Amino acid sequence: MAKIKVICRNEDCAMFNQPQEVEKSEMVCPECGEPVIPFDGGKKPNWFKKNKKLVGLIAAALIVLGGGGFGIFKACSSGDKTDPISPGPDTVQVDTLKKDTVKVDTAKVDKPEVKTEEETKKEPEKVDPKPTTNTVFGGRAKYDKAAGIITFTSTVTISLHDEDDNTLTFRRGDKIRGAKVSGGRLVGGEAVIGGESQLLSGISEKL
Asked: 140 or 91: which carries more pLDDT confidence?
C-alpha cells in the first residue's frame, strides 16, 4: 500500500502539527487515532479553492447590483462630494427643550442699583466750622465769641479804670457774661465772681 505524508490536528497529541507517514487507506494518526490531513510540504492552501462558495456569492452579488454599483463608483471617482443617499427631511429628529427645563431664579438676580438725580448730584464738601472759642488773657481764660462768655481757667486781675483804681480778681470757674470786645480789648460785660455778678463799664482791658 502507498504511504503519504500527513499531519495530526489534535492539540493533545504528541505528534500535533508534526509530519508523519501513514497508509493512504487509513488516514488516522498512529499516536492518538484521530483523523489526519494530507501534508503539502508547508505550502499555504489556495484561498480561491478553499472559499469557492464565498467567491461565487460575491460574484453573484456584483452581478445583481450591476449598474447601481457602477453609478456609485462613478459619482465617487468624479469628485462629487454630495452624498448620493441623503436622508429625507423626516429622518432627523430634533429634541426640543421643554419650557420648564431651564429655570432662572429671579430672586437671586441682583438688580443694578439706580440712583436718583438728587443722589447723583455731588454732595458739597463738609467744611468744619471755625472754632468760636479761643484763649485770651495770656491763655488763662477761654472766650466763646458766639456765646459772648469768657471763662477763666486761672487767676486774672483786671483794672476797673475808675477814680479809685479798683481791680477785680477772677479765679478758676469765674466768668464774664455778655462780654463786649472792641479792637481786641474787653470794654464791658457782666462779671460773675464766686456766684455774685457785677456790671463792668468804662473798662479797657487787653484780651
From this structure: 140
Q: What is the pLDDT of residues 43-78, one digit of tens each?
A: 544 544 555 566 567 767 766 666 555 555 555 555
Selection from 201, 198, 195, 191 nearest residue 150 by Cα: 191
Closest CA to 187 of 199, 167, 203, 176: 203
Look up residue 2 and give its three cell numbers.
502507498
DSSP reduced 3-state for 207: coil
Number of residues that make up the chain: 207
Q: Distance between CA 27 and CA 35 in Å, rounded?
A: 6
Nearest Cα neighbor of 143 from 162, 156, 127 is 156
Beta strands in the chain (DSSP E): 3-8, 19-23, 36-38, 133-136, 141-144, 149-152, 156-159, 167-170, 175-182, 185-193, 196-206
List Cβ<8 Å contacts ≥24 apart for 145-154.
145/181, 148/177, 148/178, 148/179, 148/180, 148/189, 149/175, 149/176, 149/177, 149/178, 149/179, 150/175, 150/176, 150/179, 150/186, 150/189, 151/175
Question: Which residue carries 494518526 as its cell?
Answer: 29
* pTM for the full predicted model: 0.38
Torsion angle in degrees (nearest 10) through CA of 92, 98, 101, 103: 130
Run of H or E residues at 53: helix 52-65
